[in-house]
Amino acid sequence: MLCSAQDVDETNTASGTKQTSRHQPTLSASTKNIGDRVEIRIRDNGTGMTSDVKEKMFNPFFTTKPTGEGTGLGLSISHDIIVKQHGGSIEVETQPGEFTEIRVILPRVAVSV
Fold first, then answer.
1. CA-based end-to-end distance of the chain
2. Contact call for residues 65 and 10 (beta carbons, < 8 A)
3. Which alpha helices (H) appear in 25-93, and where do they start and end?
4. What burial class does residue 104 get, using C-beta atoms within 10 Å of its C-beta: 0-12 exposed, 13-18 middle, 19+ buried?
5. Burial grade of 94 (CB within 10 A; 0-12, 13-18, 19 or more)
6. Residue 80 included in any domain
7. 69-93: per-residue pLDDT in tens?
């Protein structure tokens, strides 16, 4: 779930939000041992997202980019890998204009498929 600075800029433009030139983008990542599982948190101080976007973000082919500039499959595929293939979970907390935090929980032991 990595993206380039260009993707971030395009996302900000597509969401219609503007940030001042004094904005200092910050991305933090942390891990936590929670027994038989591992928690990974990734948080930014970007523009956040609306509840409408949050509800659809893992749907196949959903994108906030203009037509022809994205397939809308990246987060859908990531969700399927984390949840269906690894038996984990993914949660999103966001506040428009403030931040987005993604929390991924994965089992330590591989899930039998």
1. 23
2. yes
3. 51-56, 74-79
4. buried
5. buried
6. yes
7. 888 899 999 999 999 999 999 999 9
One-character DSSP codes across 39-78: EEEEEE-S----HHHHHHTTSTT--SSPTTS--S-HHHHH
Establish if 15 belongs to a structural domain. Answer: no
**Residue 98 corresponds to which amino acid?**
E
Between CA 110 and CA 113 the distance in angstroms is 9
Contact (Cβ atoms closer than 8 angstroms) between residue 84 and residue 78: no
pLDDT tens-digit map of 96-110? 999 999 999 999 998
pTM score > 0.90 for this model? no
Residue 82 domain boundaries: 50-97
**Nearest residue to 90 via CA among 77, 106, 110:** 106
Helix (H, G, I), strand (E, B) or coil at 54: helix
